[in-house]
Amino acid sequence: KDPIVPDPSFRIGKPSANTIAESYDGANNKGINFGGKIGDPIIAASDGKVIFSGNSLRSYGNLIIVKHNNSYISIYAHNNKNLVKEGDQVKRGQKIAEMGNTESEQVKLHFELRKDSKPVDPIGYFDN
User: What is the pTM of this model?
Assistant: First the structure.
């Protein structure tokens, strides 16, 4: 199956300044994981609207989902604390959560980028 080629018209910033601890493989990891410590800032990768903020999706812990446009959403999971709520507009670079280990063995940010609801490797979309 062909790898999904990143869309040059949609670029995002990294949601964390920390090191990437685990990379995307599409099977076991449908996103990338940033290491860190409790309370490290998690920032919105791009402008958008918060369509979910809570902890009712199993295995994601405290979770935020931001809809960027008709194609793309980003997902921020295992947060210690969500700082935005459903319906909020967020700007790229805005702190939206604090890193944590809700429903995770270690402290991390699990970040997913989805295009038309399919996970894609976010690495090719970062412009920083």
Answer: 0.94
